[in-house]
Amino acid sequence: MSSDIEPNWENLLSQINQAGLQDDDRIQKLLKAGIATNSPSLQNRIQKLIQLRLSQHSQYPFHRTPEGYGYDHLLLGTSATGARVSLRIDDLAKHLLAVGQSGSGKTTLFYNLMSQLPVPFWAFDRKQDYRHLLNQRSDLVVLPWSQLRFNPLKPPEGVAPRRWAQVFSELFSHSTSLLSGSTNYLLKQVIQLYKLYELFNENSPPYPSLHELELLVKEEKVNYVRKTSNYRDTVLNRLEAMNLSAGTIFDCSTGYPVPELLNQNVVFELDGLNRDVQNFVTEILFAYVYEYRLSQAHRDQGLNHVFFLDEAKQVFSVYKERQDAAGIPEIDDITAKMREFGEALVVGDQEASKLTESIRANTYTKLLLSTGDRNQFNAVTKAMNLSELQTEYAKQLDVGEAVYQSGNGSPVPVNLRNYPLQKDITDQDLERRMAEKWSELPFEERQRPIRFKEYVAPGRSNEPQEPNIVEDPQEVDLSDDAKRFLQDVVDNPFKPLTERYEKFSSRYKGNNAKNELLDNGVAIERNLSTSDGRLKLLEFTDKGRTYLESQGIEIKQEGRGGVVHRYWQHHIKQLFEKAGWTAEIEVFDTDIYVHMDDFELAVEIAMGNNAREIEHVDKHLSKNFEVWILTPDKSVRERLKQRLKNSDTSLDHVAFRLLYDFTESDAIPSQQG
User: What's the CA gap between 469 and 176, in Å, rounded?
Assistant: First the structure.
C-alpha cells in the first residue's frame, strides 16, 4: 500500500534543512531523480533512501572524513570510520584551542603534538605534567621556576628601550590588575630607571632588574595629598609582592639567552609560584619572543616555534578583557599578531567561558573534548558553530574523544591517539638529569651604577653600606613535632589552632609544637572574631619564610595582605559560592569579585580606616559595580563612612557589612540592602 502514497516533498525538504544536509551531494541527486520521475514506486523508494540517509546522519551528524596524512600534517587520531584525522602544520601556525575537563585527554593531545613537531616548542607547565617527557626524549630542557633566570627589564635584542618600557608596563599591569593611572605611573618610573642606567645612550649591560625598580619607586618622595601617591603605593605593593614571590627569577642583570632557548624544547615549570607571577612570567616571555621576532624581521618563514599553555584562562582571562579602565590587554594584541612571525600558540583549558573572546576568535583550530559542564560545553559548541545534531553527538564524548574543526572546515569526531608515558620523575630525578644543562645556561649578576645609587640615596653612593642582616635558617632547630605542625600551617593556612592539635596524640603535645614555632620566631599568632567566636591563626614571620625556603618548602598563597585578611577573602568567597554565585579573589583589583544575575559586585575587606579604600571604591564605582565594604567592627565602619562622605564619593551603590556576622544569607540578593 505504501507504494501508492505520493511522497510529501515539502516535508522532506524541511527535514533535510533541519539536518543541515541541503548541500549533501547524494541527497541532492536523489531529490532531483524523485521529482523528475512519474513513478510512485520509484518516488517512494527514493524517499526511503533519503530518510535512511537522514537517520544515519542523526546518529553520526558529520561528513565522512577523507584520509589525509603526510609530512606536512600532524596525526591527531582516527575517525569513526577508521580514517586518519590530521592537522596541517600550516594550520597549527594559526593557533589551536583545546577545551575539556580534567582527565579528558588534553595533556595526551599536547604530548602527541609535541612528539611530531618539526620545530622547537616551549611549554608553560602549572602542574608538572611535561617533565615526564624526559623518559622519551633527552633533548628536553626542564626549568623549574627556582632555576629560571630572566630579567624582564632587559629589552630584547634589536628592541628600543623606550618601546620595551611600554610593553613591559602594559604586561606587568595586566598580570597584576593595575589600572591605567597606575600603568602610566609605572611607565614613567621605568623610563627614569633606564635613564639612570643610561640605556638610551647605549643599550648594553648592566641592565636594571625589578629589584632596582622596586627600590626606585620606594625611594620616591611623594606628596600624599595628591593622587600620585595612590598610584605609587599601588605599584610598589605589586612590585614588592612580585619580587618576594618570585624568589631568584628576576635576580639578574641579564638572564638566560632567549634566542638560544628558542632553538630548544623547553618546559617552564611554574607550579608553586604566586598566580600573578605565573601570569607575568608567561606573558612577558610571549611578548619578549614576539618583539624579538619583529625586530629581526622573521616574517613569512613558516612555522618557527610553538607555545603550549594549559589552564589558559589564567593569562587569557575574560574578566580582565572586560576591565574597561585597564584598556585592551596587550597580551591579546600580541596573540593576534604573533602568527605572522611563525609563532604558534596551543592552549587548553577546562572553562571556555572564562577565556577571552580574543583567544577564541584567534584560534584557527579547535578541539572540543568531554567538558562535564553545560556552560563550558555551550561556549565551545557556539564558537565551533556546531549544528543541533552535532551538539547532541558531542555531549556523549568520552575520555580520549573529541570533535575537531580547523578554520571553516566541517567538524570531525576523532578518537585521539594515545601516548603511553611513564610519569615517575621526581624532583630529585629532575635535578640529576638537568644539573649539567642548568649549569650551562649563562646569566649576569645585578649591578647598580653610581648614578643610580646617587639618585636613590644622595651622597651615600661612596659610603660603606650596612650589610643586609638576613636571618640564618641554620639557627632554627625544630623538633619533629614542630616540623609537622609547621607543614600543616603551610598546607592549611586557615585551619584553627584547635583543629591542628588533632594531628597529635594529645592537645598538650600539639600546643608544645605550636609554642616551639613561636619561641623560635618562625610564626606569630593572629586573632580574629567570627560568627562562631574567636579564631586563632598562625602567620609566618620573615625568619619563618627564610627557614621554609632553606628546607625547600614553598608557601602557596592566594589573596593579599596578612593571614587574617586572606582568611576573610577565602571565607567570604566561599559564602557567595554557597549562595550560588561566581566569586573570584583578586579579579578587577577587588578583594572578592562576585558576578550576580543582573549586576557585578566588588567586595572590599577593610581591616582599618585607610585612605586607599577611597581609591578602591571610586575605581569600582567607575566600572558600574555595586560595592560592599566589610569591616571587622563598627568603629572602622563608621570612620570609613565618614571618610567616603568627606571625599564626595556617592554612597548610593555602596553598602557596609560587618565581617564577623556575615553569613550565607547575606550573599543572597533578596537579603541585600
Answer: 30
